[in-house]
Specification:
5 helices, 128 residues, globular
């Protein structure tokens, strides 16, 4: 049963500018340590990877119903294991909201094209 759906698009240049302007402060506020390490380890694809994760967090936020007081780091994009899709891990407040919604599975799709990264998040619950 579908319990949440969110989608977001973000310009890669917007994230690139934020990193240039705010540096580590931006990375620490928006990304978990693991996310930042994964993205910065991607070389030329770093900004695209950061933008995709930003879009995924926005999409997940929407899928959860835009709960107030949610922190960016309450949502973590977990890289795909071989043969699997990436997913979103909920912690702290996001985990509480997901539990209240009855979320059993999180589906995440990421894409990049033409200087834009996008994400779709589907939250699946147990009843149907």
């Amino acid at each position: 049963m579908l319990v949440g759906l969110g989608m977001d698009l973000v310009e890669v240049e917007r994230i690139r500018r934020a990193v240039r302007r705010h540096g580590q402060r931006f990375l620490t506020r928006v990304y978990t340590t693991e996310e930042a390490a994964y993205c910065t380890g991607r070389g030329e694809q770093c900004d695209e990877s950061l933008a995709a994760r930003y879009a995924a967090k926005e999409a997940a936020w929407k899928a959860l119903g835009v709960p107030p007081a949610l922190r960016w780091t309450d949502l973590e994009v977990v890289p795909a294991a071989p043969g699997r899709a990436p997913t979103v891990r909920f912690t702290r407040l996001a985990a509480d909201v997901a539990a209240r919604l009855g979320v059993r599975r999180v589906h995440l799709a990421l894409t990049h094209a033409g200087g834009v990264s996008g994400a779709v998040v589907i939250l699946e619950g147990g009843g149907g």
